[in-house]
Amino acid sequence: MMDRKETQHTILIVDDVPENVELLKYLLLQEGFKIYTAFSAEEARLVLLNTRIDTLLLDVNMPEQDGFSFCRELRDMDQFKLLPILFITSIDREVGFQEAMKNGGDDFINKPFNKRELVAKIHSVIRLKDLQDELYQQKSKYEKELQTARRVQDQLIPEKSFIWNGIKAQTLFHPYLQIGGDFVDSWIEEKKLHIVIADCSGHGPSAALIGAMFKMQLFNLVPNMGLKERVSHLRKNMELVLPEDYAITFCYAIIDQDLNLSYINGGHPAPIVFMDGETKLLKGMSPMIMGINMVANDEVQTVSLKQGSKFFMYTDGASEAMNSKMEYITEEGMREIFDNAVRLGGDILPSVQNQILGFCGTSTPNDDMAMVCIQL
pLDDT at residue 157 above 50? Predict the structure, then answer.
């Protein structure tokens, strides 16, 4: 006989015939289960709402509300969608099994039942429920950890909006999961405006940790380094810690007080600039950062900006957003979206984001999105 203290699993027996209830109770107490009883669906409902039940043994033919109807009612309630329900009835086995499954039951036992079959089926559904409960607890724990990680990432990658030397800088970060692998930041250093955006392959905690390492390396750079030297140091240090199956695309840009823009684009979507009434993609491409030692030839690109110019960078979660027709926005589509946002006036980043979501319609973007806009 099984040790009752080991199992502590609870069973609710629901049958309008007291003799049937007492027989089942006697047999299952011997197996170490804790037994609750009810003689109608109404009584069973009260027990279920106030007691943790691991398995429900449910008779089909009961007055007022039959077992099939009661089972359907329970399946419509979130807390009972996964509750194991075994029907016990004298209905023909083939017909009874089909009806049990159709009405939300997990299994079917004929009257008069075989004790071994009954106990075996109860243990089977309880094992499944224990696994489901364990998975649910792990999922809840994981979600709490993700929420904590998101708060940490919000501190590491805060959305910014500030004005320097008449230039307005704004960033936006929207992870696909609660945390993501995108990175975006803008700051003032040595009387220059620095703008960095990066995208680590993958989603979730691993990509977010790599994003955190990227920021750590970024802000460990010596202030008087030039752009090319900065990118070289970033490459070298990130390649030491980046797993071989991961990669980072990035774009590092600097604007000086004379409005000269210099940038290195490492495998990232092309930056976009609006100037003299025209919106265009900026050329120039260097290799991305990968978890292998490689010699990269980083080319510094330069553009002389003007008052009224606008500079925009984003991660590919935007350009690769898809609608219900399986169509991508593409880089050219992002150029058009940015151009439209500029001409509409107002806050550019919220306008760009709303246009992306409008393009997706009922589809949900399946990648992280980060953006930065500089308005001169």
Answer: yes
Top mean pLDDT of 62-76, 108-122, 196-210, 284-298 is at 62-76
**Domain ranges, ordered by start, for the chain:** 4-145, 157-375
At 210, the amino acid letter reads: I
Per-residue tokens: 260: 């000269």
Determine if the pTM surpasses 0.70: no
Half-sphere exposure of 161 (CA within 13 A, CB side): 6
Lowest mean pLDDT among 16-25, 63-72, 142-151, 222-231: 142-151
157-375: CATH architecture: 4-Layer Sandwich (3.60)
> 23, 88, 83, 80: which is closest to 54 by C-alpha?
83
| Alpha carbons 271 and 282: distance in angstroms, whole number | 5
Q: In this model, does residue 270 exceed pLDDT 90?
A: yes
- The helix/strand/coil state of 128 is helix
Q: In DSSP terms, which residues pair with 202 in a beta bridge?
A: none
Of the ranges 4-18, 111-125, 244-258, 361-375, the best mean pLDDT one: 244-258
Residue 171: strand pairing partners: 372
Rounded distance between C-alpha atoms, residue 178 and residue 203, angstroms: 10
Provide the token pair at 93.
């086995």
Q: Name the architecture of domain 4-145.
A: 3-Layer(aba) Sandwich (3.40)
**Is there a contact between 22 and 39 (Cβ–Cβ < 8 Å)?**
no
pLDDT at 60: 86
Distance CA 253, CA 256 (A): 10
Q: Following DSSP, what letter does each residue of 332-368 receive, concatenated?
A: HHHHHHHHHHHHH-S-HHHHHHHHHHHHHTTS---S-
Distance of CA 306 to the CA centre of its chain: 41
Q: Give the Cα separation of 102 and 86 in Å (integer).
A: 13
What is the C-alpha to C-alpha distance for residues 327 and 130, in angstroms, rounded to an integer?
43
Alpha helices by DSSP H, listed for 222-329, are 227-241, 316-319
Distance CA 204, CA 313 (A): 22
